[in-house]
Design goal:
315 residues; mainly alpha; Serine Threonine Protein Phosphatase 5, Tetratricopeptide repeat; two-stranded parallel ribbon; 16 helices
């Protein structure tokens, strides 16, 4: 009897392994642009001269800057474009206006339009003598990342690495944190003085995470136990009752000789059973992602590791 029970349990765990959920997390961390943050930053470009301020394009530019300072980005883009049309072609201000348009698109998370603006403008030919060169590279890096154009993103990263190595290191940390690459985070953390903010992040995550395999194994042994393990009491009770009812119904059908009905009921139970195993693993993974996101978002915002928070200049 013990051997049969052991063999049955082994088979359950074997079948459950076919529904294995990967333990790797896929977090979603984001930032919120705050007016106060940009109000603390200075502009990258020289103020307009009296002559420039009195010109048609200068007046449009001043209005556009006022909209941009209030993060009224739609109006700012429209007015910057009017200034771009009016500014003399040979003026260095044209590049500055084009950069401001690109920055508005970026802050508005319109990444396609930001890269289109870059490619059609003269910004593709600037070098580190351009006052906003550091920020321009950051903007492009993040735009290509969001657009999943990883080839161009890598090119921009290499350019940042050769020109602004400290910023490149911050981006490396940022990328590891945003993707939840725990191995990379641990590798980076080895070079830090301890305790570090990465120590606190990792300690908190590992202390609170749930085992995906453990949740699935528990649900394989007793339907609902995996959900109870991750704190979902209602789901645990539902899974337990549904599986119990289907098993009891199948037993009754077989016991009374209704073989066809028993097989149909048992097939439904099989779906509930293995679906519950997979679901418990997915919920454990989801739980871990939420634990990680809470801690990683705090680190990314507090340490200014989002590219938008690394910008050195505003409008």
């Amino acid at each position: 009897m013990i051997r049969r029970s052991t063999a049955f349990l082994f088979l359950l765990l074997l079948f459950a392994s076919c529904y294995r959920v990967p333990d790797q997390i896929d977090p979603r961390v984001s930032y919120q642009i705050q007016d106060q943050h940009f109000q603390k930053l200075t502009g990258a470009f020289e103020p307009l001269s009296h002559h420039e301020r009195d010109s048609d394009w200068g007046r449009e530019y001043i209005i556009a800057r006022a909209f941009a300072d209030q993060l009224d980005l739609y109006r700012a883009v429209s007015t910057f474009k009017r200034a771009e049309i009016l500014v003399p072609k040979e003026s260095v201000r044209k590049l500055e206006i084009q950069y401001d348009i690109l920055l508005c698109y970026f802050l508005g998370k319109r990444y396609d339009e930001a890269t289109e603006e870059f490619e059609r403008s003269g910004l593709a030919h600037v070098d580190k003598s351009f006052p906003a060169y550091h920020d321009l590279l950051l903007v492009l890096y993040e735009c290509y990342r969001e657009m999943e154009n990883f080839e161009k993103q890598q090119r921009i990263y290499e350019l940042i690495q050769s020109t602004f190595p400290e910023t490149a290191e911050k981006l490396r940390i940022s990328a590891a944190l945003r993707t939840g690459d725990l191995y990379e985070i641990e590798q980076i953390n080895e070079g830090f003085q301890h305790p570090s903010y990465l120590d606190r992040l990792l300690d908190c995550y590992y202390a609170n995470k749930k085992s995906v395999g453990g949740a699935q194994a528990l649900n394989a042994i007793l339907p609902g136990a995996g959900y109870l393990y991750i704190g979902q009491k209602k789901s645990a009770l539902t899974a337990f009752l549904l599986n119990g009812l289907f098993i009891a119904a199948a037993y009754q059908f077989f016991h009374k000789g209704h073989t066809a009905a028993g097989i149909i009921t048992l097939s439904f139970e099989t779906g509930w059973y293995f679906g519950g195993i997979y679901g418990a693993g997915e919920e454990a993974k989801y739980y871990n992602e939420r634990v990680y996101e809470r801690n990683a978002s705090a680190v990314l915002n507090d340490c200014k590791l989002f590219p938008v928070l690394m910008l050195q200049h505003a409008f």
